[in-house]
Amino acid sequence: GQSLEQPSEVTAVEGAIVQINCTYQTSGFYGLSWYQQHDGGAPTFLSYNGLDGLEETGRFSSFLSRSDSYGYLLLQELQMKDSASYFCAVRDGASGTYKYIFGTGTRLKVLA
Amino acid sequence: NAGVTQTPKFQVLKTGQSMTLQCAQDMNHNSMYWYRQDPGMGLRLIYYSASEGTTDKGEVPNGYNVSRLNKREFSLRLESAAPSQTSVYFCASSERGNTPSYEQYFGPGTRLTVT
């Protein structure tokens, strides 16, 4: 089967840097994605890593190590609006389609 | 571009009633998905359609049926609603043509309560 593990909650102060980890077990690996979801809202795509290394998009970066089955999302210069839930997701390698499995999410609280 | 739209936004059903959740996308995506999200939980895949004319079960398909009406529309039907189906339902789409897209676009969700 496939599974993803994330911390349930992370708290940080405005302006700080926070890292949200994700470990996964998959039958085949086609990359790790990250989504953000504000309370009451829909998930929105943040980033994708298909190969090892760091991908940077503005204040957000995502890292992948395929040998360790591990990735993380790094948020810099935290702002209050970053308070949200963050989900990692992997594509189901067994199905051969673009079907995704999501983690249970990490709730980030940013304190003033 | 409206993206992914879902109707209705809110719905209350009594146990045993049926209803259909509608989803449409205007991005010419091939793949469409239905997820449910329970409080404090991640997204769990109910059914998906990799392309027009095909549908497949996801992680939690029991109690649901789907129809891929055309490339734009993908509906989810609850034949006999149960309190365990109280949840927020999200429709999503991805993949333009033959170009792999790792980004899923989500609709605003339908908040369903079954009493």
Q: What is the terminal-to-terminal distance of chain A?
A: 41 Å
How far apart are the first and last residues' alpha carbons of chain B, in Å? 36 Å
Structural class of chain B comes to mainly beta
Q: Give the topology string of chain B: H per helix, E per strand.
A: EEEEEEEEEEE
Low-confidence stretches of chain A: none
Supply Rg of chain A.
14 Å
What are the low-pLDDT stretches of chain B, counting only 5+ consecutive residues below 50? none
**Secondary structure: helix percent of chain B:** under 10%
How many helices of chain B in DSSP terms? Answer: 0
The average pLDDT value of chain A, as a whole number, equals 91
In terms of quaternary structure, the protein is heterodimer
Shape of chain B: globular
User: What is the residue-mean pLDDT of chain B, rounded to a whole number?
Assistant: 92
Strand content of chain B: over 45%
Shape of chain A: globular
Radius of gyration of chain B: 13 Å
Give the number of DSSP strands of chain B: 11
